[in-house]
Amino acid sequence: MLKKSLDALKAEAAQTGSNTLKRTLGPVNLIAIGVGVIIGAGLFSLTGIAAAENAGPAVTLSFIIAAVGCAFSALCYAEFASMVPVSGSAYTYAYATLGELFAWIIGWDLVLEYSVGAATVGISWSQYLVKFLDGFGIHLPPQIVHSPFESVVMANGSVVNGIVNLPAVLIIALITSVIIKGTKSSAFFNVIVVALKVGVVLVFIGLGWQYIDPANYQPYMPQNTGTFGEFGWSGVLRGAGVVFFVFIGFDIVATMAQETKNPQRNMPIGILGSLAVCTVLFILFGYVMTGLANYTEFKDSAAPVAIAIAKTPYTWLATAVILAILIGYTSVILVDLLGQSRVFYAMSKDGLLPQVFSRLHPKFQTPSKSNLVLCVFISLFAGFIPISVVGEMTSIGTLLAFVMVCLGILILRKTQPNVERPFRTPWVPLVPILGILTCLVMMFSLPLDTWLRLFVWLAIGFAIYFLYGKKNSKLGKQTSYQDSQDEASR
């Protein structure tokens, strides 16, 4: 239960030298990082699911409710990020408020989310690349786009087994090389990728707007079927739960605090700004999509956007959407790998993980060895394990981190009310409490296998912590030394 003092964290944030991360990120870079991971392929699929099964055209209200739910946690993140501008995000905040063991739980859990997320998105990226190239008559051999545990039935009826998902491995390696070159290079690459991705979304909104059929909005909120969650206001709320996970990602901005210029000002702008930009885009996207086609047409469709595009003369938009998904996945992989390496960096600096994860490249001043180790680990998953085993990129770890951050704000406001807060979460304790309740509801709505995976991963984490981390904790060693000195003086 040892806690890091805020003074120690601020001193760590103020450090300079060859073994500290470069501060190169401004508010635009931070907003782009947040938007880069929030806007993924989920926008193009979950919007149709929520409209067809839950909310109808009122899915736009679902987006607003989900955004408000995320805002509770985002406001708490913004306060912490302005107070404690160091790497580690929720891991560091938990260390300062709840203690080392809780910090380890959060850090270890975020590692799982970012690892599984990057591997899963890498595999999906490979699948969409195959579809994209097929549209141009380029057909990749199935052996190099599937894992050894997958088989493909060919057109002639023969069955071919995969060898390695080579595109998934290559995209992980490519993004890792960009990250190693430095945060500034990664941020510039991410800005370009995000600009292209947002551009496709804006093109869909702009071109589709003129073909909206007002009749598709009647009724705007379909009458409830008698079952909770199937249309009506309960359907809007259930739809908010479905699209809530589209918004998750702004928290990764907080992992970049130690590489941000003027973090007290820019971190809140990055966190809240990325959430605001995506909220506006998502509402407009949902409005146009349900205006182009009747919400009932999206039922049981894996590609609802294609149905909407078919109502316009711009059939080439379908290819552009696949391109947007590819671009979107690229930025998600980049930010996942960035976030994971920064959490590892913070945990290693504290002695809870081996020092290799906090050693910086002499030229680029990035945790390059950590990046390479993670690249190999994640590439093995992406290349040789099928997506059904790797698992969908669930958000239980992120939601757990949200709960801890909101709880941390409540604790710090009580225990250290006079600490300087460049950004203050409004309406405390109401906002943190609402953030905790919102995230707990979302966590309990997740399937049982997600919880089982969390418990297994945490069991592995506890073993590592008690066998290695607890013995090598720098804070633990300092406390033991101080206790021995006090004992000697008595």
Plain-language structure description:
The protein has 490 residues and is mainly alpha-helical. The protein has one domain (6-479): Amino acid/polyamine transporter I (Up-down Bundle), CATH 1.20.1740.10. It contains 18 helices and two strands.
In short:
Helices cover 67% and strands 1% of the residues. With 490 residues, the chain is an all-alpha fold.
* The first-level CATH class name: Mainly Alpha
| Rg computed from alpha carbons, rounded to a whole number of angstroms | 23 Å
Proper CATH architecture: Up-down Bundle
Query: Percentage of helical residues?
Result: 55-70%
Overall number of structural domains: 1
- Rounded mean pLDDT is 84
| Content-based structural category | mainly alpha
Would you give the CATH topology? Amino acid/polyamine transporter I
- Secondary structure: number of strands: 2
Pattern of helices and strands: HHHHHHEEHHHHHHHHHHHH
Q: Which segments are poorly predicted (pLDDT under 50) over 5 or more consecutive residues? A: none
The description of the largest β-sheet is:
2 strands, antiparallel
